[in-house]
Specification:
About 25% of the residues lie in helices and about 30% in strands. A hairpin with a 7-residue loop joins strand 2 and strand 3. The chain is elongated, with a radius of gyration of 22 Å.
Length: about 290
């Protein structure tokens, strides 16, 4: 992998974060109001279809959720009921939505382009995000091996080089397609290789297993870099690349509540599979006089 100059990111923002579903009492999902005026070169019902799809992509939901009724969409989008109905009909035809008489309209599958979404201020596993979005995760080329700590692994886990670790590597599949190359390492004293082979699920994360086994993970530290991955790179070969591609590289150390490192991971995500965002509180500014 090649890392371009200045590729390290301290935070990433999703520019469309305000265009999202919000859960409310009773209706399950509500819509944020926003303007449709910028979309002015398409039939109005197509704009509505794309706007609803965009809102679905930004929402925290699972397949099977009931979407807002037509009246709510009319009020939120500022268009007629006929236009909303036409836009929703196109999503029904595509199999994204399903109308159930007497019950409402339900999300059947995520729209094309859906990706894992992670807030940097919260430590949650991709398993949780996938479940919210109704996405199916799996693994291929899964390998669990006893290894000695390499220099970067030793530094992250605060052990000496050569210390016994267990390394778990695999290709993460989202809806059956390669999305990321993942490598996780833990001290052998925390979880042994045989224990991981027996209990690790290919649709879950190693952090899920750690927590399930009672390891008191408290927080993590993550570094994010932009990278270029080629088909001749080991990672590119694992991800079945046919040409060079941009990628997002994430290195993360998990810590116990007392500050002791317990897991180190490095993940390489292909474009279109992961959105990261962060909520920042105002800390300090310079007043202009």
């Amino acid at each position: 992998m090649v890392y371009p100059d200045g590729g390290r990111l301290t935070s990433m923002f999703v520019g469309r974060a305000t265009r999202r579903f919000r859960r409310g009492k009773g209706s399950g999902i509500g819509l944020d109001r926003h303007d449709l005026g910028s979309l002015n070169r398409e039939p109005l019902y197509v704009k509505v279809e794309r706007r609803i799809e965009d809102l679905l992509l930004q929402g925290r939901y699972k397949a099977g959720d009931r979407i807002p009724p037509e009246a709510d969409l009319v009020a939120s989008l500022g268009v007629s009921r006929v236009t909303v109905r036409a836009g929703m009909a196109r999503l029904v035809e595509r199999g994204v939505l399903e109308r159930r008489q007497g019950s409402g309209t339900f999300l059947m599958r995520p729209p094309g382009g859906v990706r894992l979404r992670s807030g940097l201020e919260r430590l949650e596993t991709y398993t949780v995000h996938a479940e919210r979005l109704g996405l199916k995760l799996d693994s291929e080329d899964l390998d669990v091996e006893d290894v000695g700590a390499r220099s970067e692994e030793a530094a992250a886990l605060e052990v000496t080089e050569g210390s016994p670790l267990v390394r778990v590597s695999r290709v993460l599949l989202i809806e059956g397609k390669p999305a990321a190359w993942m490598v996780d390492v833990v001290p052998e004293s925390v979880l042994g290789a045989e224990e991981i082979r027996e209990r690790f699920r290919p649709d879950a994360m190693l952090l899920d297993l750690l927590v399930s086994e009672g390891v008191p993970v408290g927080f993590s530290q993550m570094f994010i870099e932009a990278a270029m991955v080629g088909p001749d790179d080991p990672v590119g070969g694992k991800l079945r690349l046919k040409e060079p591609s941009a990628a997002l590289f994430l290195a993360q150390t998990m810590y116990l509540a007392d500050g002791c490192p317990v897991q180190w991971s490095r993940d390489t995500f292909l474009p279109g599979n992961l959105n990261l965002h962060v909520v920042r509180e105002l800390f300090e500014v310079r007043k202009l006089t």
